[in-house]
Amino acid sequence: MSAMPRADMARPAAHPTGRGFRLPGGGLPWAVLLLAALVLGLPHSHVFFASLFPALDRPVYTQEPFTQLLWQHVVLVGVSSAVSVVVGSAFGLWITRPAGRQFRPVLETLVSMGQTFPPVAVLAVAVPLVGFGESLAIIALALYGLLPVVQGTVSGLQSVPGSVLQSATGIGMTDGQRLRQVEIPLALPVWLAGVRTSVIINIGTAAIASTVGAKTLGSPIIVGLSGFNTAYVLQGAVLVALLAVVTDMAFERLAARVDWKR
Predict the structure, then answer these.
(1) Element (H or E) spanning 110, and its range?
(2) How many CA atoms lie within 13 A of 247 on its CB side?
(3) CATH code of domain 102-262
(4) How many other CB atoms sit within 10 Å of the CB of residue 3?
(5) Where are the alpha helices (DSSP H) in 117-178?
(6) What is the pLDDT of residues 177-224, one digit of tens each?
(7) Can you tell me whether residue 65 is helix, strand or coil?
(8) Which of 32, 201, 248, 258 sits at a 20 to 30 Å CA gap from 192?
């Protein structure tokens, strides 16, 4: 009698890594290359956009170089996000300490109001006080990005188990040592998630800053909307979206590294 075939011989061989196909180096380098290719290639894509929008006399945005708009957009988001992170983290830390705990409802209400107002309304109200330009955009974006940072800081610090805090106190740590060596390292992943949300929001919101004189990747969008030029809107929107994707991938890689070091 012939031997029965073994069950494991009938199964297909598993992938050696147990995962599907992955791009070399992950998706981040390829997304960066795509963003760079679009920024450098869009000024030379007249034929392509002319075929898509034959009714437009100027289908490619040429008022400012896309490289300059990308750089100014990144700087604007970087400065405003840095302000949001520093101020929001300080507020979040303060309202989780005994001295500031009673002010938590008031502070959370204020930062929530900062994101409830539409960015355009914030910009319009602040124009008489600050004037047009990048300074106004930085103030508006910094206020708009506070809420996720405050929430991430508070949630991260509150996620630290009480037993861990008691153990730290039991071995003789001071409040400052417990905060630096225990609470902040354990809260870091949740805090970073709040920072990630804040920065991504600011990347999209910074496009509106072009309405008050700031040069960003939103400039083609604003010009396109005012001049009924769909090609301009498409070019600006694609670049803003791709910049947000690249930034989100970078934060994802950073979050994985932070979580691994815990």
Answers:
(1) helix 104-116
(2) 22
(3) 1.10.3720.10
(4) 5
(5) 119-130, 134-144, 146-158, 162-170, 175-178
(6) 888 889 899 999 999 999 999 999 999 988 888 877 788 999 999 999
(7) coil
(8) 32
